From TrEMBL:
A Pfam family hit: RTP801_C
Entry's Gene Ontology molecular function annotations: 14-3-3 protein binding
Protein name: DNA damage-inducible transcript 4 protein
GO cellular component: mitochondrion
Entry superkingdom: Eukaryota
Species in which this protein is naturally found: Nyctibius grandis
PANTHER family: DNA DAMAGE-INDUCIBLE TRANSCRIPT 4 PROTEIN, DNA-DAMAGE-INDUCIBLE TRANSCRIPT 4 PROTEIN DDIT4
Family: Belongs to the DDIT4 family.
GO biological process, one term: negative regulation of TOR signaling
Key word ATP-binding present: no
Keyword Transit peptide in annotation: no
Lineage: Eukaryota, Metazoa, Chordata, Craniata, Vertebrata
Amino acid sequence: SLPDLDLLHDPEDELLCANLMDVVQATLGRAPLGAKRCSRLLMPAQLLAQVRTELLRLACSEPCGLRGALLDLCVEHGKACHDVGHITVDPAVVPTFQLTLVLRLDSRFWPKIQGLFASGPAFAPLKLSTGFRVIKKKLYSSEQLLIEEC
């Protein structure tokens, strides 16, 4: 069984994760989703809290904690998955694991975003769904991938 997150609570990782969530939101705020186009993607507060908890949980078993993470951000809509950014949590630390955070566009907004990939004026900010997936890959081990669906 996995250790209880409260038992492994690390105040440094908590602060680091709060800063990381700011970087994630900034990266999503300028996400390149189409050819030469950017869209402002908004994370609902519930999604932000869930992602933060999940990242801390996945980092607690790592030798350097969250400091040793590489984070890839992807946004999924339809069958396509678009890369929107790569974040090295602490550039001073050799990464020990890679997390791929796959966020989903809120399907209720699909008709509004179909034109996102066409030319034309900028669109209003897009809201993300509260569902997401995190894929963890250890960089120092040959263990299988760990995929968490939330």
